Structure formats: C-alpha cells, structure tokens
DNA sequence: ACTTACCGTAAGTACAAACTTACCATTAAA
DNA sequence: TTTAATGGTAAGTTTGTACTTACGGTAAGT
C-alpha cells in the first residue's frame, strides 16, 4: 500500500467515522468538558478517551487547553468548516452530474 | 459488544473515513462509472473495489443499477444530504454554545 | 455453443486501530 | 509535604478491516 496525501477534511472524516469519537464530539457540542467528564458515561476507559481526543485534536475537530489540573476540550470550528466546505463543493459538482443522470434513470426504479 | 445505533450519517462518515472510498466517491462526482472503470487507476484490485462499493451503497452514498453486464454507479444524494444536515445542525448548536461561553466570559471580567 | 467482458462473493491473510492495565507527571489542596 | 485529582503515554492484546486470490455467475458478442 502506498501512502497518500491527507487533507484536513480527510482526517476529519476519518475521525468522525469512529462511533466513540462521534459520541465524544457530540458531548462537546453542548459545552466544553474536561477529559474525565468526557470519559464519564462512555463504555471505554479514560486512557482510551485520551487517545481518541488525540485523533480529534489532530483532525482540528477539538481544541484543548490546560486549566489547573484539568484539560478542557471544546469544539474546533476549523475541522467542522473543512468538512462543510468539502461537502458543499462536492454538492455543486455532483448536482450537475446527478441531474444529467436523472434523465436516463427516470424509467428505472 | 459496543454495538450501538447507527444513523445514516454515521455510516456515511465511516464510509468516507477510508481514503480508497474517498477516491472512489470523488471519481463518481464527475459522472457515473462502471465498476471496472472505477477500479482502473486505483492501487487496489477490482474485488476490493466491489467491497468498498458495498459499504458506500449501504451508507446511501452511491446508487448502483445494472446496465447490460455493467454495474453503473453514481452518487446518491441522500447520504451527502445526511452529512450536510448533521454538520449544519451541529454548527448551529456549537455556535450557540460559543455565544453562551462568550457571555459568561464577559460577565467575569 | 463458445468466448469474452463484467462483477459479486468466499476464504484466508496482514496490517491498522481500538482497547486494556500499569505507570508516571503535574497541579491543587490538606 | 503529603494526599488526591487529573490525565498523558507505554506496552501488549484483541478486534476490525482492507486486501489478496480463486471461483462462479450472468450478459453480450462471435
């Protein structure tokens, strides 16, 4: 297998592909949380959460900053924007192709 | 053991998390293609492509219909819309949280 | 009927990733 | 300074998944 370039949205899609990371991501949607608060209620250990946070951070989906002994995590808008932009751009190009294909597809299904 | 409910956007994010599937997805953005055309140029075998197409189809990201001996694949707008809706909804709530955090921060100054 | 093109699935393998426990560092409070 | 809270990282295991080859099955052309 050969390595290929990884865009910012690539990492973001990959990060949100995991259900546990999705759960973490959605927990942070409401308000910033410390690591221990994120782990609480999840069916995995705290170290596992730490590892997931690392992935989310690398995908620019969350930001982390120290506050005393706590590591407060919050949503990073950059990763979300990257995905939105990718999908919006995709949408524009795909829509034209879709309309064209819809003509031929009309008699089927 | 970690089985949880899988929404349509869940499957879509998971599907686009794989770089090969991303490549397939983007190939179909321009126009519908047969399986052999999709596999051509990709660094994986055709059966591998078939397996990826299965995942993409299950995530409602592509549609497949027979045409002679060929299986024509095209973008399915439903999966794309599901992701867009998820991100848009997420965006709104996250922004509200930021606003609230900003208010709170202001009060403490 | 035979051949060719197209494609899905089965079986098995190899590597990536998600998880665990154990440990250590840092900070705040007692 | 001792204790408690927080959490990152290492090491190792297990599970998941992306891939391969081999095969069978269908449709179109010869």
TrEMBL record, chains A, B:
Domain of life per record: Bacteria
Keyword DNA-binding on this protein? yes
Report the InterPro entries cross-referenced here.
ArsR-like_HTH (IPR011991), HTH_ArsR_DNA-bd_dom (IPR001845), HTH_MetalResp_TranReg (IPR051081), WH-like_DNA-bd_sf (IPR036388), WH_DNA-bd_sf (IPR036390)
Keyword line: DNA-binding, Transcription, Transcription regulation
> Keyword Cell division, does the record have it?
no
| SUPFAM superfamilies in UniProt | Winged helix' DNA-binding domain
Q: Where is the HTH arsR-type domain?
A: 1-102
GO MF, one term, reads: DNA binding
The protein's name: Helix-turn-helix domain-containing protein
């Amino acid at each position: 297998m050969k390595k290929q370039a990884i865009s910012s949205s690539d990492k973001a899609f990959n990060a949100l592909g995991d259900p546990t990371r999705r759960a973490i991501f959605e927990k942070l949607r409401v308000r910033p949380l410390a690591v221990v608060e994120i782990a609480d209620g999840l069916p995995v250990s705290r170290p596992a959460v730490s590892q997931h946070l690392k992935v989310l951070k690398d995908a620019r989906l969350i930001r982390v900053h120290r506050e005393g002994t706590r590591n407060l995590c919050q949503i990073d808008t950059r990763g979300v924007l990257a995905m939105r932009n990718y999908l919006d751009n995709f949408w524009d190009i795909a829509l034209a192709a879709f309309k064209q294909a819809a003509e031929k597809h009309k008699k089927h299904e």
